[in-house]
Write a structure and sequence with these properties.
about 325 residues, alpha/beta, Rossmann fold, seven-stranded parallel β-sheet, two-stranded parallel ribbon, 11 helices, globular, binds nicotinamide-adenine-dinucleotide
């Protein structure tokens, strides 16, 4: 091969590789929170540029990876959001900021809708104005299907949310379909099951694993609502973050992100006793009315279209999570 041929060949290889690992500018809302911070880390690992936009209402600066840019702002503030679009010039929006407390949404559906619906519409309007090439949305599989008669549920199962929170997430999915049809905005909505793992905030009502780990460590034991035989589909936060990476190049659509495996609250108590070696108290309290009894998600579509499947079993994820809380408790 002559020198000129070698140079042409090298240029071809470099172009091919840079197309394969296309670096993207991603504006990530809610990146100071639990799941958002895992998503940010996974994007940065892939060399993407990340701007986190978060009002720190439940997230913390400690969660923000060093290499991410950060703007403290609220998604309800259209002008401030627009400044972030102008400054950072994102190509992709990843939308994780939300009011996540189901009980707050029941007590004050307006507050829930202001963040979860109106804040999302602000982002969608700006996405059209600034030619965003992909909009990724953190939806819910746990709160959108209601109490299904058959589990695991696939994406075509009837949507019967039992709370304003689930209703607001479904509403945004409908807006995504509208923006896609009318403005050609490419989107991926990921319906997460129950996400757990390191850094989850134990101070809300959601996140039974984080709450139990914290309560075991501070000696207050575990409060189990109802019989404890209600089951959920627990997916580790790093698996969820991988789904967000794979979504960057996927076709528009809505995908369940769960394991299809059902685990009861009593199972979690037993496993935590085993992993921690602590014989903590667990106390049963009356069931919470309106709570779903059994839910798990069919993840076949995500496997087929995104090439995603969970890699972390519940046992190994729970051990990792317990160890993290044990090492980080003050
Ligand atoms: P989180 O509370 O840790 O993260 C939410 C983040 O959004 C926080 O950093 C918070 O400060 C920020 N935020 C809230 N309101 C805001 C606003 N008005 N403007 C700007 N930032 C705002 O919660 P999480 O568990 O990491 O949830 C992240 C996303 O995933 C949410 O959209 C949630 O609905 C969705 N989700 C979570 C689960 C789960 O099991 N944790 C399941 C399904 C879907």
């Amino acid at each position: 091969m002559t020198k000129i041929h070698t140079l042409i060949f090298l240029k071809y290889i470099i172009n091919y590789i840079s197309e394969l690992v296309q670096i993207m500018r991603i504006l990530l809302t809610g990146g100071a929170g639990f799941i958002g911070s895992w998503v940010a880390e996974n994007y940065l690992k892939e060399k993407h540029e990340v701007l986190i936009y978060d009002n720190l209402s439940s997230g913390t600066v400690k969660n923000i990876p060093q290499d991410a840019e950060f703007i403290e702002g609220d998604i309800r503030d259209y002008c401030m959001l627009e400044e972030a679009f102008k400054k950072f010039r994102p190509e992709v929006i990843n939308h994780h900021a939300a009011q996540i407390n189901v009980r707050v949404s029941v007590d004050d559906p307006v507050v829930d809708a202001e963040t979860n619906i109106l804040g999302s519409i602000n982002l969608l309007q700006l996405s059209v104005k600034y030619n965003i090439s992909k909009f990724i949305f953190a939806s819910t599989g746990g709160a959108i299907y209601g109490e299904p008669s058959i589990i695991p549920v696939d994406e075509l199962t009837d949507k019967q949310p039992l709370s304003p929170y689930g209703t607001s997430k479904l509403c945004v999915e409908n807006y995504l379909n509208y923006y896609n049809k009318i403005y050609n905005l490419d989107f991926t909505a990921l319906r997460y099951s129950n996400v757990y793992g390191e850094r989850q905030n134990p101070h809300g009502e959601a996140g039974v694993v984080a709450i139990f780990c914290t309560n075991i460590l501070n000696g207050t034991g575990c409060k189990v609502f109802g019989s404890g035989e209600q089951t959920r589909d627990y997916v580790h936060c790093n698996d969820v973050a991988r789904a967000n990476v794979l979504s960057l190049n996927s076709v528009s659509g809505i995908y369940n992100i769960g394991t299809s495996v059902s685990t009861s609250v009593n199972d979690i108590v037993t496993k935590l006793k085993d992993f921690s070696g602590i014989d903590f108290k667990s106390e049963h309290l009356p069931a919470i009315s309106g709570e779903v009894n059994h839910i798990s998600l069919d993840n076949k579509l995500a496997g087929k279209v995104l090439g995603w499947s969970p890699l972390i079993s519940f046992d190994s994820g729970l051990k990792r999570t317990w160890n993290w809380f044990n090492n980080n408790s003050s």
